[in-house]
Write a structure and sequence with these properties.
mainly alpha, ABC transporter involved in vitamin B12 uptake, BtuC, globular
Length: about 375
């Protein structure tokens, strides 16, 4: 008996994103749209706003967005799991107060910074424990700890400010890399960006983060330790926020309990604008980096164009709402388009002929 081998038809990929060509998967994404919008705004600002040009503006732009960019890295992972952390700006303020208070008490800046980071870790661990192991909603928990940590910061220092920091440390926070227009803070930012990119996109831990955001119950049964993953993400957010608070303090040379008030909204707006879904399960860090820079460029350009702070806040709020709505809108458009294609396919002459043939054969049998 002779058998002939027939070539197996290549199976179609099951994920819709891989059903498109490579250039479509790269260019037709929210992340690329944000990058393109960033480039448009940046070059338009350089051409239309006289003061928005040269290395000096880029230098101050990076100094301004550095704390937002730092906090946005762990916040991206937290939001991808479907959670949120609104207490990050309060941790910035608390670490700022600790650095100033401990240094005023005779402790060196490095030791005070280390204590502040450890306190940030404890703040993140407290958030993570309540969310991951107690099972409380992260929105309610971090609203509460936002007030708690800010209250501790104001309670420790009151309404006064500590400004007597050594010049070598305040100068270091504002120093440049050689003769370039890039501040020194870019170095730790690049290190953290590389670490978080590797963690999110190239490790089983990162795949578990996406799985939790898509369906935490399914992720649990597939072997992902959901509680432990969420706990460590909040710990990371607390530690990085404390580091951002140290930089914030040294950059402005001032330790106050109300430092970085409202920064959490800018961080969340940048993350969502960068393509991360507020519902979890979707996002990429390159889009978040572009989102942070886009908000920074907009703020700098509008300030140089004599736009008031209230108007700038209104624009950022509109961007936040638009970024949240875009996910649902794009999902609706995709479902509507798929439904129209399905109905068109069902009504095609070939489909009707196949259905008629099948019905005729069924009657004959």
């Amino acid at each position: 008996m002779t058998t002939t081998d027939t070539p197996r038809a290549q199976a179609d990929r099951t994920y819709p994103s891989y059903a498109k060509a490579l250039w479509q998967r790269v260019l037709l994404t929210r992340e690329f749209a944000v990058i393109a919008l960033l480039l448009i705004v940046f070059f338009y600002s350089r051409s239309e706003i006289p003061n928005f040009d040269g290395p000096l503006t880029i230098y101050y732009l990076l100094l301004d967005v550095a704390p937002i960019l730092l906090i946005a890295l762990p916040m991206t992972l937290v939001i991808i799991t479907g959670e949120i952390d609104l207490s990050v700006a309060s941790v910035v303020g608390l670490s700022s107060v600790l650095v100033g208070d401990l240094h005023q008490g005779g402790m060196s800046i490095p030791m005070a910074a280390l204590v502040a980071i450890l306190v940030g870790v404890l703040c993140g661990a407290f958030n993570g424990f309540l969310v991951a192991y107690v099972g409380l909603p992260s929105l309610a928990v971090t609203i509460g700890t936002l007030a708690l940590y800010r209250g501790l910061a104001v309670g420790l220092l009151g309404t006064t400010a500590i400004t007597d920091f050594p010049e070598k440390w305040t100068d270091l926070a504002k120093d440049r890399i050689g003769d370039s227009s890039y501040p020194v803070i870019v170095i730790p930012i690049l290190v953290l960006v590389i670490l978080f990119v590797l963690l999110l996109h190239f490790t089983p831990f990162g795949r578990g983060v996406f799985d939790i955001g898509l369906n935490d119950e399914a992720a649990h049964f597939s072997g992902v330790n959901v509680a432990r993953t969420k706990f460590w993400l909040f710990v990371m957010a607390g530690a990085v926020s404390a580091f951002a608070g140290i930089y914030f303090t040294l950059r402005f040379g001032s330790s106050r309990g109300d430092n970085a008030t409202g920064m959490e909204l800018q961080v969340i707006a940048a993350v969502l604008l960068g393509g991360v879904s507020i519902f979890g399960g979707r996002g990429a860090l390159h889009g978040v980096l572009a989102g942070v820079l886009l908000i920074g460029v907009l703020q700098s350009a509008l300030r140089l164009d004599d736009v008031s702070a209230n108007v700038i806040n209104i624009i950022i709020g509109i961007l936040l709402i638009a970024s949240v709505m875009s996910t649902s809108f794009l999902t609706f458009v995709a479902r509507t388009t798929a439904g129209m294609k399905r109905r068109a396919s069902d009504g095609s002459p070939e489909r009707r002929q196949r259905q008629a043939s099948a019905h005729h054969e069924g009657n004959n049998s």
